[in-house]
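Appendix B. One record, verbatim.
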Amino acid sequence: MPDVSVLIAGQAGFGIDKSGLIIARIFNQLGYRLYVYRDYPSLIRGGHTFSIIRAAQGKVGTHKDKIDFLLALNQDAVDLHKERLKEGSRIIYDADTVKAQGTGVNAAKIIKEENASEIMRNTCIIGSFCKTAGIDWQILENVLKRNISREIDVNLKVASRGYNAVDKISGIERLKQEPLPVVTGNEAMGLGLISAGLKAYISYPMTPTSPVLHSLAGLSKDFSLKVIHPENEISVILMALGFSYAGERVAVGTSGGGFCLMTEGFSFAGMSELPLVVILGQRPGPSTGLPTYSAQTELNFALSAGQGEFSRLVVAPADAEEAYYWSGACLNMAWKYQTPVIILSDKNMGEGAYSFDINSMPAVKEEGPAYWDGKDAYKRYLNTETGVSPLAFAPLKGNVVKINSYEHDELGITTEEPGLSKTMQDKRLRKGKYLEKELENYPTVNVYGDSGAATAVICWGSNKGVCVEAAKELGMKVIQPAVLWPLPLQKVKDAIGQSKTLICVESNATAQLSGLLMCYGIKTDKQILKYDGRPFSLEELQEQLKDCSSIK
C-alpha cells in the first residue's frame, strides 16, 4: 500500500505550516488520504519548526518517525532530522544555505533573480520536490493557485524555477481515489458548530484553539456570525452568557490557563441553566507549560471545573470527522438540556490536518430546545419531569425572563429555603440523567479491530489514530470513548468484553482516563503515558505495545 512521509523544516517565519498544507493538498490531488503533524516553538521568528505530511491509501491519523523526503530550508533541518532518514530517503535542500547529500537547488539565487520575497524559498523547494517525486507540474500549479492569494504570479515563477532545476528521481503513484477536503480539526469544529446553528463565537486567542477564532472570523459574513475577540477570558465567558440569555447559540474557545479564569462563569452557567459550549484546547502545564505543544492534561479539570454540583457534558473528538460531528452535537445538547458543555481538544487534533470525509459520520443539523408555549405566567425554571424548563427570551411582553446565580425558585427569585433549595438542585441534576439516557443513541464509544482480541487498548482524543494503526499490526482492538462525561459505562464494559489485558494510552503523566475508569471498577493492566508535549509516532507506540503484550 502506498505510504509516503515528507518532512519540511526550517526556521519559524519561513512559512513551514503553509508549505505543509500545500504539500498535503498536492498529495490529495493524487488520491491520497492525509495527516499533517505540526511542530513549532512559541516564537514568531527564530527557533526550529517543521511539519510531517503523511500520505497513504487509507485513512491515517498519525505520523511516522521515518520519512521518505526531507525538504530542508536551513542547516538545522538536516542536522536535527537526519535520524529520521532511511534507506532510499531523499533530501532536497537549499544549496545556497545548506550542506547535505541529496538534491540541491539554489533557492536563494532564484529568489534574488526573480526579485521575490525571502519566504518564497519554500515555494521553490516545493517545486523541486514535485519534480524529484515525479509529480506533474500542472498539479502543483493548480494547488498553488488555489492556496496562495498574494503574488501568485511570482510564486509560480519561483516554483517553476525550482521544478526545472532538478531531475526526476522517483515516481509517486497516482491512486484511483477522489480527493477529499483537507481540513484541520479546528476548522472542522467550527464547521460543525455552524451546522448546528451557531450564532456567536467569542474567544481570547490561546494556542491551540486560536485557529477556531481565525477560521470562523473568515466565515462570519457567509453565515451571519458574530465573532468577537474581547480583552480577556473573563470577558469572553460573561459575554457568551449574555448571548445565551438572549437566545443566541454561542461557543467559546480557550486553553487551560484561560479556562481557569472562566470557571466562575462556567459555574454561573450551571446554576442559571444557560446553554454554553466551551472548546478547551489542552496543552502541557501547569501554568504556561509548553504553550505550543500538546497534551491530554485537562480531563480531571473538565470533569470538576466550577464550584458546586451541576450537570455537564464532556466530549473528546479524535479527528476531523469527530470534531465536526461532536461540536454540532454538543451545541444541540447544550440547548436541549440548558447546560454547559466542554469539548476537549488538543494541538495534535486541533492543528493536525486530515482528509475529511463528511459522509463517514451521521449528519449534523440544528435541533431546537423546548420553547415556552406562551400560556400562563412564564417560569424560567419551571420544575419539569426531565428538569428541562421551557425557554423564552427577553424582551417578553407581560413577563420577565429572570436568571439568577443564587439559588432560586421557578421564577428565578432568590431563595434560601431548605426544601426548595433541594428541589431545585434535584431539578438541575435530573437533566443529566436524561442527557445520559439520550446519549445511548449516539456513537459515544468506538471499537476498532478484532472485537474478540485478548488485548484491548483504550484511549481518548487524538491518540485514536496512532492506537488504531499500531494495534491493528499487533492483533489488538482499540476502545475509544468519545464521551467522557457522563461516562457511557455499559458501552465501555461491552467493548472490553472478554479481553484479558487492558492497556490505557494517554498523553499525560497521571493516567487520567485510567483513574476515571478505576472509579467505576475498571482496572487497566498497563498505562502507556507520554508527556513531553509531542505525540506518539506509529513506530514508538508499536514498540511499547509489543512490550505490554507479554503482560499476564
